[in-house]
Design brief:
Helices cover about 0% and strands about 55% of the residues. The protein has no helices and 11 strands.
C-alpha cells in the first residue's frame, strides 16, 4: 500500500503563485509515476501534470508555461509550482501515484483546495 498526502493549497489572487506538495509513503518500491489532477465544481477530474520515474513530464496545454511539476525521488515527493494563476485554475487538486508494477493500480490523496480570486 502507498499513502498519499497533499499540502500547499489555499486562496491566492489572480496572477499569484502557489506550490503544492505531495508526499508518498508505504511500499516505496511500488511507486511509479506521480502526478496532479484537478476537479472544478461541476466538471470532470482532469490531468494537470505527471512526472515519470525517469523525470519525463507531461503537462496539460491549459497550464503549460505556468505550472511546473518536479519530483524529489529521495523524499518520494512531487511538487506542483503554479505561477500566473487564473480564476479558472480554481479547483480541488489531487495527487496521484501510479503503482510501478501493477497496471491500473493507483493511489489518490485527499485533495487540496486551490482558490484563485480577488
Amino acid at each position: 500500500q502507498v499513502q498519499v498526502v497533499e499540502s500547499g493549497g489555499g486562496l491566492v489572487q489572480p496572477g499569484g503563485s502557489l506550490r503544492l506538495s505531495c508526499a508518498a509513503s508505504g511500499i516505496i518500491s511500488s511507486i511509479g509515476a506521480m502526478g496532479w489532477y484537478r476537479q472544478a465544481p461541476g466538471k470532470q477530474r482532469e490531468l494537470v501534470a505527471v512526472i515519470a520515474r525517469d523525470g519525463t513530464t507531461t503537462t496539460a496545454d491549459s497550464v503549460k508555461g505556468r505550472f511546473t511539476i518536479s519530483r524529489d525521488s529521495a523524499k518520494n515527493t512531487v511538487y506542483l509550482q503554479m505561477n500566473s494563476l487564473k480564476a479558472e485554475d480554481t479547483a480541488v487538486y489531487y495527487c496521484n501515484v501510479k503503482h510501478r508494477y501493477i497496471l491500473g493500480a493507483e493511489y489518490w490523496g485527499q485533495g487540496t483546495q486551490v482558490t484563485v480570486s480577488s
